[in-house]
Write a structure and sequence with these properties.
binds FE2/S2 (inorganic) cluster, binds flavin-adenine dinucleotide, alpha+beta, Uridine Diphospho-n-acetylenolpyruvylglucosamine Reductase, domain 3, five-stranded mixed beta sheet
């Protein structure tokens, strides 16, 4: 029998917070600014795009506390149970002395109107703590999710390059308090389920994965929230009610990554950032795509399970995962089943998911040696943008030079992520040459009838998909290296 607590507990800077009443859709940013009067974190876009609201959230990963930059505008307060929230106000030193990161920004003229500045400082603070002497690419990656409309990025980057000269993380209060904070947070993870409110205002924070499975089976109408990088926008942009809500982002069992000689299994709650080292080790071809998912803050929150479960035709994990032959593991109560990932996407807004069933994990077979594999994301902006289309290509060429196997999958080309089966069939058995590739291009129109929308016209989508196959071919011939380096 699971014990129940009726309070959400977390640390805010140096203070323990205990909430017994909170709406499931209350965002951290609104709570900080309106209820706590901590107005250093700003609201620029309220959709996770600009980074003006960036704070750090310390979470337990195993026995360690790990601080991630996150966007407070789309993070729900109830998801903070058992964490440490650090806002810009926490950087204030004795007598108002600036933090090393802040001083570096001042000295390098990294701020003009100042609206974006707290967000930049928090992103850089998170970077400085884990990598005090960051390389230029590391700085650019950490700042992908921060927009500035007036200073320009060069002074901010110069400040980032200089920040270690102003101080080292070992001298930072957050470092000194690490052990005490970790113990305090561990104590909050006391094995109890948290339940607050009733009806639409109900919040459930399961005690474990089994507890979650049982709760969701009994309450299939409840909304699951993992990283809230989709659901957050339903609240801030569409004013939708989302309760009752089951929050699952804290479940350690859903953060497992199991690897063996033939496959890698990601549990649903693994975030993009948590998956990155394993992706780099096992699927290096996916790194350029992985580093172009949203920006750092969203990668720190958004989960692989959420990207699949939302059923979006433009989610970026389904095309490469389908091309790799991924298997999806679904669970309802104690009942588990496995399907091919591509079979999960039935139609627009319709997935093969029963009531009370959730995505537990996804298994990716490792790429057999000798196969070529690449994924290309086409979006209007290089970073922090949703795909207009995303194409994944995997091919095996026999010793005789003919195509033995082809798997091609696209997002943004149909109502669901979908394989290009006519193109695949047209390639098999043919010599892997530019002539073959050009001959099969018309088959794309049989597989896909894309639509025109704000991201791209249907003509653009079809032409871009065809050109991506040509690009893939050229790269398999060693001719696309320059292009590949430019986008990496
Ligand atoms: C600024 C910004 C940029 C973005 N850029 C990209 C991008 O480049 N590429 C991209 O693909 N996406 C992008 N997204 C979308 C989003 O980040 C991803 O889809 C993310 O993976 C969603 O995961 P989540 O954990 O945040 O999902 P949530 O918002 O928590 O949930 C999404 C949906 O999935 C359901 N759900 C979550 N977990 C489970 C589960 N285990 N079982 C069953 N149902 C579940 C929820 O009920 C909900 O319906 C972006 C979002 C933002 C805000
Ligand atoms: S206000 Fe723009 S990311 Fe939060
Ligand atoms: S300093 Fe004005 S938006 Fe960045």
């Amino acid at each position: 029998m699971v014990e129940i607590s009726n309070a959400i507990r977390f640390l805010l800077n140096g203070e323990e917070i205990v909430l017994t009443e909170v709406a499931p859709d209350l965002t951290l940013l609104d709570w900080l600014r309106l209820e706590r009067r901590l107005r250093g974190s700003k609201e620029g876009c309220a959709e996770g795009d600009c980074g003006a609201c960036t704070v750090l959230v310390g979470k337990l990963l195993g026995d360690e506390i790990v601080y991630d930059s996150v966007t407070a505008c789309i993070r729900f307060v109830a998801s903070l149970h058992g964490t440490h929230v650090v806002t810009i106000e926490h950087l204030r030193g004795e007598n108002g002395v600036l933090h090393p990161v802040q001083q570096a920004m001042v000295d390098h003229h990294g701020s003009q109107c100042g609206f974006c500045t707290p967000g930049f400082v928090m992103s850089l603070y998170g970077l400085w703590m884990r990598d005090p002497n960051p390389s230029r690419p590391a700085i650019e990656k950490a700042l992908q999710g921060n927009l500035c409309r007036c200073t320009g990025y060069a002074p901010i980057i110069r400040a980032a390059e200089a920040m270690s000269r102003y101080g080292q993380p070992q001298g930072d209060p957050l470092w000194a308090e690490r052990i005490a904070v970790t113990e305090a947070i561990k104590a909050m993870h006391d094995g109890r389920r948290v339940e607050l409110g009733v009806g639409e205002n109900q919040i459930i924070i399961p005690a474990s994965l089994d507890d979650f499975a049982a709760i969701y089976e009994a309450n299939p109408e409840a909304r699951i929230v993992a990283g809230s990088t989709d659901v957050g926008l339903w609240v801030t942009k569409f004013m939708r009610r989302i309760g009752p809500v089951i929050f699952i982002g804290h479940l350690q069992e859903l953060k497992r990554i199991a690897e063996n000689d033939s496959e890698v299994r990601f549990y649903a709650g693994v975030t993009y950032s948590e998956a990155l080292p394993v992706i780099a080790a096992n699927f290096p071809q996916l790194l350029p795509l992985w580093n172009r998912f949203a920006g750092e803050q969203v990668r720190n929150m958004g989960t692989i399970g959420g990207n699949i479960a939302n059923g979006s035709p433009i989610g970026d994990t389904p095309p490469p995962f389908i091309a790799l032959g991924a298997r999806l593991h679904l669970r309802r109560g104690e009942h588990r089943r496995e399907i091919k990932l591509e079979e999960f996407f039935v139609d627009y807004g319709k997935q093969d998911r029963q009531k009370g069933e959730f995505v537990e994990s996804v298994t990716l077979p490792l790429l057999p040696s000798g196969e070529h594999f690449a994924t290309y994301k086409i979006s209007k902006r290089r970073e922090e943008d949703i795909s207009a289309l995303c194409g994944a290509f995997r091919i095996f060429v026999n010793d005789t030079g003919t195509v033995g196997m082809a798997r091609i999958a696209f997002g943004g080309m149909a109502a669901t992520p979908k394989r290009a089966k006519t193109v695949e069939a047209a390639l098999i058995g043919k010599p892997w040459t530019l002539e073959t590739v050009e001959a099969v291009l018309p088959a794309f129109a049989e597989d896909f009838q894309p639509i025109s929308d704000m991201r791209a016209s249907k003509e653009y989508r079809l032409l871009a998909a065809q050109n991506l196959l040509k690009r893939f071919f050229l790269e398999t011939q060693g001719q696309g290296e320059r292009l590949k380096r430019e986008v990496a």
